[in-house]
Amino acid sequence: EEQLVESGGDLVQPGGSLRLSCAASGFPFSGYGMRWVRQAPGKGLEWVSIISSSGGNRAYADSVKGRFTISRNNAKNTLYLELNNLKTEDTAKYYCERLTPVLRGQGTQVTVSS
Question: Which of 52, 78, 87, 101 is close enough to 57 for a disulfide, judged by CB 3.0 to 4.6 Å?
Fold first, then answer.
């Protein structure tokens, strides 16, 4: 069964940091581009960051550029998202997605609040 399982979400104060992980199984992880998306309460899905299958190409939404870092370890079938200098507006459920065909995990909650 193809599966993505996110972890690492937490309650953190503004300015804090988190590292999200996404464990992939059931498909050849190293052959797919991957991305992180998020959904804030009452809002639609927002694209956050994308990484190529090899990890050599990455891109970020303007709202997170300079604060978030996407990476992957193909030997461990795992995708990561490093979140730094968190802001209250980063509060959302974060999902990892495989590209084409799309597969999405169940998400992990990040709450930024003092």
Answer: 52
Residue 27, classified by CB atoms within 10 Å of its CB into exposed (0-12), middle (13-18) or buried (19+), is middle
Task: Please report the beta strands in 1-114, taking only residues with DSSP state E, as ranges in sequence order.
Answer: 3-7, 11-12, 18-25, 34-39, 45-51, 58-60, 68-73, 78-83, 92-98, 103-104, 108-112
Provide the pLDDT confidence category of residue 100 given band limits of 50, 70 and 90: confident
Average pLDDT on 82-95 reads: 98
Token code pair at residue 31: 């052959």
What's the rounded Cα separation, in Å, for the pair 103 and 97? 5
The answer to whether 92 touches 46, Cβ cutoff 8 Å, is yes
Name 94's Cβ contacts closer than 8 Å, sequence gap at least 6.
Answer: 6, 9, 20, 36, 37, 38, 48, 81, 107, 108, 109, 110
Partnered with residue 93 across adjacent β-strands are 39, 109
